[in-house]
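Let's study a protein:

___
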Amino acid sequence: MRLPDGPKTPRLWQQIQWITDPISYMETNAKKYGDIFTVGAGFGGETILFVSNPKIIQTIFANPKLFAAPGYLNKILQPLVGENSLFLLEEPKHQDRRKLLYPPFHSKRMQAYGQLICEITKNVTTKLSFNTPLSMRKTMGKITLRVILQVVFGLHRGARYTQLEELLSARINAVSSPLSSILNFFPFLAKDYGSWSPGYRIKLQQQQIDDLLYAEISDRRAEGESDRTDILSLLLSARYENGERMSDEELHDELMTLLFAGHETTATALAWAFYWIHYLPEVKQKLLEEIDSLGENPDPMSLVKLPYLTAVCQETLRIYPGVHLTLPRIVQKNVEIDGKQLENEINIFGCIYLLHQREDLYPQPKQFKPERFLECQFSPYEYMPFGSGIRRCIGAVLAEFEMKLVVTTMLKKYQLELADSYPVKPQRRGTFVGPSSGVKMIVKADRTEALEKAQGL
């Protein structure tokens, strides 16, 4: 049985290309081999296919019995999230855990988080200096980390909060720079070889984080039932269908999962959003007019319903999605799909980036055009920044909600501009891809004060 075509270069060279320049790797192969091709960038020696045809993706993701999504295929994430993470669970435990995790992320819960996200954004940005270049990715990272600590972990102040903020930031940065990204793909390099090695520092950081998280879980269990609305509190009181609660280890690993899945991706998406909004003046103008139409102190739930704001966030997640691949599927038996022969045990990734760059779906795909989301309704297999099927990101609603509130809170408060006019390019950051420069911006003025002066207040 003949596999779809793909690059013939040595596996190690393909792995280096995938780590150092994933955008070029995907685009070059798609141009040469089409919307389904075999790649040699796998780090376990397995046969891998990248698929970017929406019809093929739908066939694969809508048939989990024929194209399974076992947790062991995500073992590369275990050092980050732990063996009890939703990412690594097998069926039926995976679906049981999703049922437990879903209610805290339901849209009805968002109202309780909205004001807090706005307050966090204001608290972080009040410390910004005027007329001094700043990295939007770092600034957004501070905001999204505090959202994790307060909305997810339920921490707001005190020594444990401060320690976790410092340690989690250091832990994420340890595997997120372009150079250290290699540690995510070659686990043996991240092992503890002594105090001189990166693995030693990562192990020490992780142990300190673990101690603090387990202490928090223990204290919260001792509190008993409460009316707190943070996600940890809701998970502590949740029960499986058999009446059992999540163990400390399960809670710990899901907290780490929510951190790594929700912090860096959302911070990166926000940095890109601010870049595009200020790179294209017409986008900024339309967005400000829509936001200002709600008055001086709009309700967060009103803000997130704004159509052009929604389109801007959707286009941001389309053009450079935080995650370029879906979680993998594995072929359960030899099958033919769209004229292609797929063998049993082949791993298939939906290629989100290439899907979002299809000219037939998104004319002029390299251009940032929010209007396309106002003019067309895309299916879950045409637009899928959070994956699809049974492994779709469970925090998608919170991530989009957070993006909208952070963007509107900052745009209402400050006049911002890009520090330079050079186009920003994507660059590998850990398991994600973000803006190469971090998006350098300058806070020019307090927009609120400027508007009050203009109105003679």
User: Anything to note?
Assistant: The radius of gyration is 22 Å. The longest strand covers residues 440-446. The first helix runs from residue 11 to 20.
